[in-house]
Amino acid sequence: MKVVKQKKVDDCYESSNTVDFLLSAPITKDFVEHLGKLGKLLLFEEFDIPYFKVIVKGEYTIKGAFGRKTIRILLPEDVENYPLDPLVQHIESFKIVR
After folding, report:
1. Are the C-beta atoms of 71 and 60 separated by less than 8 Å?
2. For a tag on the chain, would you pick the N or C end, based on fewer CB atoms within 10 A?
3. Measured in whole angstroms, how far is the alpha carbon of residue 84 from the centre of its chain?
4. What is the pLDDT tens value at each position of the chain, 98 positions in all?
5. 3, containing H or E segment
């Protein structure tokens, strides 16, 4: 999986320090479980479009929906230019099986 683009989100109601990642492939359960290794994984599979949250305590929260190509990262409010390289490396270490 590759992070194709990073975009600062200015109009997120949950956090004023938010970034969206555009991914190279749709989100799968295997990919979500890979992200879940970073913290506490919450799955909401009972909805029409299943979604997930990964809470990395004291750092950030990752949110997304299965089948989509975008994840949202909610960062700490008081930290500008939060270092996202370790997260990008973790995402890009996931190998897509075709």
Report:
1. no
2. C
3. 11
4. 999 999 988 877 677 788 999 999 999 999 999 999 999 999 998 989 899 999 999 899 999 999 999 999 999 877 777 889 999 999 999 998 76
5. strand 3-9
**How far apart are the C-alpha atoms of 62 and 18, rounded to whole Å?**
10
Structure-block tokens of residue 6:
């990073």
Using DSSP's 3-state secondary structure scheme, residue 22 falls into: strand
Residue type, 9: V
pTM (2 d.p.): 0.90
Helix (H) or strand (E) holding 30: helix 29-36
DSSP secondary structure code for residue 97 in this structure: P
User: 């270092």: which residue's tokens?
Assistant: 83
